[in-house]
Task: inverse folding
């Protein structure tokens, strides 16, 4: 009998996530009932405070350290004319992140977040760029319309890189991404995970014209047709890893790995737009407990984001018609979270204010 040569899944992916403290949640709910406001009048801000109480195991939670990791990589499918920009832009934007000039870098400074820029593999090297962590797993992925995007070993390395990006003593994690053609890769991954066709999930990404949109849809359909047999019959977790290997990006895998590792370490994550949400869906399919540790920052204008959010049963905090990526929408939501916890901690109770 022929022996299987398939590598086993990395064991750490399936380790259980951290415990959510139900008693701390109840204590936070009791405090909310005592604050000088009508019950429920702060809406989802109250729920955020209760959620963080459960995550931190204390009735009055605080955010001490926010970690932002921006993962970058190139995609071979860019050769199918699916982007309005050349691949050289990925490395150029990596340098811009490291220099603090990108939108997400501005927002990180405003929120007091510690930012890490990680290049997992771009066509143009960034080894000379100060402030960039270079993994160089590959010069981008292969064109998934012609071959699997990456090997199993490379996928395992990308997942682990995401996990290792987490800084110590974090109260909150935000993941961002950059990579020319990565909306095409994310759309292909999502189509495979959700059983949808390209027309339902492919959007304009960086702003492609009608011809570019048609090229993206065609590329996703070709990728699905080429690789669907690879994950047919596999269980959900294994199929998800196969889909990431065949259709995904290095930065998408790193995001998924980061979300899994953060949940295992008891760190809630704020999920950004379409690409990050596809990575979150993959993380939840690999390790379902991750779902309890995710906050959705915003609803992107990208076409596929609404159905991804529906599949995740997610209710984003913001809807600003953004579609930049980078983690920018998630970082926009961070001050909302900070304000929710400040209100929970600093508002007077009825007894403190002398109110009946």
Result:
């Amino acid at each position: 009998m022929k022996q299987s040569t398939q590598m086993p899944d990395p064991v750490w992916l399936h380790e259980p996530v951290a415990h959510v403290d139900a008693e701390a949640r109840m204590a936070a709910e009791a405090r909310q009932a005592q604050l000088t406001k009508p019950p429920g009048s702060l809406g989802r801000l109250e729920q955020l405070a209760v959620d963080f109480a459960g995550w931190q195991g204390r009735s009055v939670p605080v955010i001490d350290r926010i970690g932002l990791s921006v993962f970058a990589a190139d995609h071979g499918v860019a050769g199918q004319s699916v982007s309005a920009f050349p691949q050289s832009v990925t490395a150029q934007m990596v340098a811009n992140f490291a220099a603090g000039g990108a939108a997400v870098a501005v927002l990180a400074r405003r929120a007091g977040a510690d930012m890490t820029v990680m290049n997992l593999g771009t066509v143009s090297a960034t080894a000379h760029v100060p402030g960039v962590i270079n993994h160089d797993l590959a010069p981008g992925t292969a064109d998934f319309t012609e071959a699997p995007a990456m090997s199993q070993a490379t996928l395992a390395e990308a997942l682990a890189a995401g996990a290792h990006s987490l800084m110590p003593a974090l109260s909150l994690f935000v993941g961002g991404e950059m990579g020319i053609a990565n909306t095409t890769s994310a759309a292909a991954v999502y189509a495979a995970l959700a059983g949808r066709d390209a027309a339902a999930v492919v959007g304009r990404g960086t702003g492609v014209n009608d011809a570019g949109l048609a090229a993206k849809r065609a590329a996703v359909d070709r990728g699905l047709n080429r690789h669907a047999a690879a994950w047919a019959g596999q269980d959900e977790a294994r199929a998800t890893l196969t889909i990431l290997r065949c259709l995904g990006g290095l930065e998408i895998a790193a995001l998924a790995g980061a979300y899994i590792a953060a949940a295992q370490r008891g760190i809630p994550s704020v999920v950004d737009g379409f690409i990050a949400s596809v990575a979150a869906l993959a993380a939840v399919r690999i390790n379902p407990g991750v779902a309890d540790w995710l906050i959705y920052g915003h609803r992107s204008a990208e076409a596929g984001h609404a159905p991804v959010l529906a599949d995740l049963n997610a209710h984003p905090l913001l809807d600003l018609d953004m579609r930049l990526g980078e983690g920018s929408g998630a970082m926009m939501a961070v001050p909302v979270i900070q304000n929710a916890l400040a209100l929970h901690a600093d508002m007077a109770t009825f007894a403190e204010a002398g109110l009946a």
Observations:
- The longest helix spans residues 210-231.
- The chain has two domains: 20-60+343-353, 66-335.
- The chain has 14 helices and six strands.
- The longest strand covers residues 66-73.
